[in-house]
Structure formats: C-alpha cells, structure tokens
Design brief:
globular, seven-stranded parallel beta sheet, alpha/beta, binds NADPH dihydro-nicotinamide-adenine-dinucleotide phosphate, 250 residues
C-alpha cells in the first residue's frame, strides 16, 4: 500500500515537473501608465493570464497596487526623451512580445472654441500622440526579440472623425486622430516585418480621466482588450477595434 502511494506521488511529481511554467510560456507585455485606471486593470488581466508584466509609472514608488501584482515596475514619462531612452537601456536584451501604449491625458479644453488656449494643446499631443511614438521607437530592439511583435495603441472613439458628430475636445480628439494616423503609417512599414500595429478604443470607462464617470469599469474594459489582443492575427495589422472587438470607423 505504502509502495503504491510512493509510486503515485512520484508519478504526480514527474507530471507536474513536465508542465510548462506559465509565466515564461505566455511572454512579456509592457504597459505604459499602468499604475491606475485602464493600465492597472490591463496589468491585472495579463498577470492573471500568466504573462510577465512590465508596468510603467511616472512615480513607481507610489505604484503600490501595481507592485502588489508582482509586475516589474519601471519609471517612465512618455514626454521625456531621456526617460524613454533610459527605459530602453534598462530593458536591453529583454524580449517584449506586446507593447501597450496606454498612458494618456484629456488635456486642455474649454466649452467654447473662442476661449481655447491653442498653445496649451501642445501638451496633449506630447503625451497622447508623440508619447506612443517615442516609446515604440525606443523599444524596437526589444520588440524585435519578441515572438508576437504586437503594438497596441490605446486611442479613443474621440479620435474617429466619422463619429465626431458633437464637436468639442479639440486637442484630445486631434491627438488621438494623430495617433491613429501614426499607427496606420507604422502598420504599413512594419507589417512586412511581422509586426502588428492596432489602435483600440477601450470603451467609456470609469477612471480618473472621466472623474469616475463612464459606462464600464476598468476591469470590464481590460477584459475586453485582453480578449481582442489574445486573438490578434497578422491580418489585423492596421485595424481600429473597440474593447468588444468591434471595428471602429476612422
Ligand atoms: P487615467 O487618468 O486613469 O490614467 C492615465 C494614466 O496615464 C496614468 O497612469 C498616468 O500616470 C499616465 N500618464 C499620464 N501622463 C503621462 C506621461 N507624461 N508619461 C507617462 N504616463 C503618463 O486614464 P484612463 O485609464 O482612463 O486612460 C488610459 C488610456 O485610455 C488613455 O490613453 C486614454 O486616452 C484612453 N481612453 C480612456 C477612456 C475612458 O473612458 N477612460 C476612453 C477612451 C480612451 P500618472 O498617475 O503619473 O498621472
């Protein structure tokens, strides 16, 4: 009896040892602005699914919820070229399978165009449009080492010109339209090299950006985005999807 238990135990141990280590198998995802909102919810989704998550924050020492997930924390301000270069240096030789450019702001806005301070719009473009470009360019060596080569740019339906029927938010809309355009350009250039560039609208999500207003929670948004990203194929290169996988109009 004792001998059969011993054999059974050894067999179970051998089976367990032969199972792949989940985290190593799924790959590595880097998420910008992962300390709160949709970025944090995405970090939760990818961690739960067994990915190695590299989450960036402007103040990593304050990113306690991200740290609790066991993610690798990295400092990053997407508007600062030195900060972006330093991130790339610290990640030298590390394969990144999926890059999610999530960090974003709503930026300067006024009720009336007449009172808009146009000079202030520079910043929203620095964060929402040039930020993803800077990060993607700096991490090209790490993406080249990755097996998936997927770049997910979190855009917005507000960047869709076809859906713009009520105006306003001139800077935010323009910055996301620019991001959509950059995504298309890079999808053309890098699609031939096996990369997949996608822009996504995460839904109207209850985060700080909306003062907690919104139709869905960050978790629901991130679950949807995770599902869409998990199902991406090379033919999706250049696409614009929402969190439910619906194709968005440009
Ligand atoms: P939050 O305001 O909750 O979070 C924004 C994140 O971006 C924070 O982590 C913030 O970091 C980071 N961030 C801001 N500026 C910079 C910067 N210069 N460098 C690096 N990180 C920065 O917003 P959401 O989670 O709602 O938004 C995430 C993305 O989803 C954005 O791109 C947004 O435009 C998009 N989106 C959101 C919608 C919504 O309904 N919420 C709808 C459509 C699109 P810190 O904490 O340091 O400020």
């Amino acid at each position: 009896m004792t001998r059969s238990i011993q054999i059974l135990f050894t067999a179970c141990l051998l089976i367990l040892q032969s199972l792949p280590i989940q985290a190593a198998d799924k790959g590595t995802v880097l998420i910008t602005g992962a300390n709160r909102g949709i970025g944090l919810a995405l970090a939760e989704q990818f961690t739960a699914a067994g990915y190695q998550v590299i989450g960036t924050a402007r103040k990593p020492e304050k990113a306690t919820e991200l740290a609790k997930l066991g993610a690798r924390l990295e400092a990053l301000d997407v508007t600062d070229t030195d900060s972006v270069a330093q991130l790339s240096n610290r990640l030298e030789g590390i394969a990144i399978d999926i890059l999610i450019n999530n960090a974003g702001i709503s930026g300067h806005n006024t009720k009336e165009f007449a009172s808009l301070d146009i000079e202030q719009l520079d910043w929203v473009f620095q964060v929402n449009s040039f930020g993803p470009l800077r990060v993607t360019q700096a991490l090209l060596p790490q993406l080249a080492l990755g097996s998936k080569k997927q770049i997910i740019n979190i855009s917005s339906m507000m960047g869709s010109m076809e859906l713009n029927t009520w105006g306003g938010y001139l800077g935010y809309r323009g910055s996301k339209s620019a991001l959509n355009s950059f995504n298309t350009t890079l999808s053309v250039e890098y699609g031939k090299k096996g990369y997949t560039f996608v822009v996504m609208h995460p839904g109207y999500v209850q985060t700080d950006m909306n003062n907690g207003n919104g139709e869905i929670t960050p978790t629901t948004s991130a679950e949807g985005i995770f599902k869409v990203v998990s199902g991406l194929k090379p033919a999706d290169n250049g696409a614009f999807y929402d969190h439910s996988g619906k194709t968005m109009p440009w």
